[in-house]
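Example 9 (inverse folding). The structure is encoded as follows.
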């Protein structure tokens, strides 16, 4: 259409009619004279709009997904972090429960033996310190630790302090071949010296070659002069085997230590010795032996029985 005076006049007229219809429609509401025309237009153009919407909506959803992907990724990442934290917490709680149990046992031992202890955690193991069987603990001179102090846990004798730094110390374990401790047998008071043998039982030389000792007997530390390096009464272990007496001046027994040296975690350094020897009071209660089941056999007479009247065997 050419831009002429007539075309411009027609455009102005159409715009004026459009405004007039909008005004009439707004004022008429649902009774508007153009309501029917609007419904007819909806009937014609509605399916087309739906088709266009169906064709366009996946793209819109994809765009929305891309737009929200950052926040969704953040939520997933946060959930993953929360899940990992929960698992770590559960694992930590299990470990804490185990450590609390160890601490309770050690406090019981310290209370029964009247030992003043400084609690510590094992932070390193191995031969890095120059010994075959040693551990490093997280207390040192700043905590009042000195060389040649007894180290124990809730099960019994762990070892003795050999090297002290400002904040850490090295402990020589009781199963080290260079370790020796004076021992006393429970009840019989037979004295001896226990030496470490690595992952094998402790070897104990009893001073009495004719000592009456048997499997299952228990030993505690005898104690040292001025309680260094060993305080008395700390549980050492249980006799596993007794060498036959050969008439010598000493007698050898082999002892399973109460402490598991490969599972050390919470230990205590005895910083204050007891005022008197606790003797056997620190030993745990003896295990109650399980009763041996008794089997009773009942004999049932067979079909080939003897006739009591004539003493003859009844044949089938």
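The amino acid assigned to each position is listed next.
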């Amino acid at each position: 259409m050419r831009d002429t005076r007539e075309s411009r006049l027609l455009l102005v007229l159409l715009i004026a009619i459009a405004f007039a219809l909008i005004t009439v429609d707004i004022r008429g509401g649902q009774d508007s004279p153009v309501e029917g025309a609007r419904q007819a237009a909806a009937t014609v153009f509605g399916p087309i709009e739906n088709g266009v919407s169906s064709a366009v909506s996946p793209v819109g959803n994809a765009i929305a997904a891309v737009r929200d992907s950052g926040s969704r990724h953040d939520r997933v990442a946060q959930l993953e972090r929360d899940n990992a934290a929960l698992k770590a917490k559960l694992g930590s709680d299990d470990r804490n429960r185990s450590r609390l149990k160890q601490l309770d046992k050690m406090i019981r031992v310290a209370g029964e033996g009247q030992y003043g202890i400084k609690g510590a955690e094992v932070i390193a193991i191995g031969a890095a310190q120059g010994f075959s069987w040693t551990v490093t603990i997280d207390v040192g001179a700043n905590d009042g630790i000195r060389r040649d102090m007894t180290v124990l846990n809730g099960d019994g004798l762990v070892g003795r302090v050999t090297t002290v730094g400002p904040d850490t110390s090295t402990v020589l374990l009781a199963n080290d071949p260079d370790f020796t401790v004076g021992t006393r047998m429970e009840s019989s008071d037979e004295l001896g010296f226990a030496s470490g043998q690595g992952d094998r039982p402790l070897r104990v030389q009893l001073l009495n070659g004719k000592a009456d000792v048997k499997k299952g007997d228990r030993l505690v530390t005898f104690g040292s002069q001025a309680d260094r390096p060993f305080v008395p009464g700390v549980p050492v272990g249980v006799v596993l085997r007794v060498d036959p007496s050969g008439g010598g001046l000493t007698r050898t027994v082999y002892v399973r230590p109460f402490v598991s040296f490969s599972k050390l975690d919470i230990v205590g350094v005895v910083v204050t010795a007891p005022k008197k020897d606790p003797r056997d009071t620190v030993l745990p209660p003896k295990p109650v032996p399980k009763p041996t089941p008794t089997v009773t056999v009942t004999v049932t007479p067979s079909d080939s029985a003897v006739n009591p009247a004539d003493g003859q065997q009844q044949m089938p």
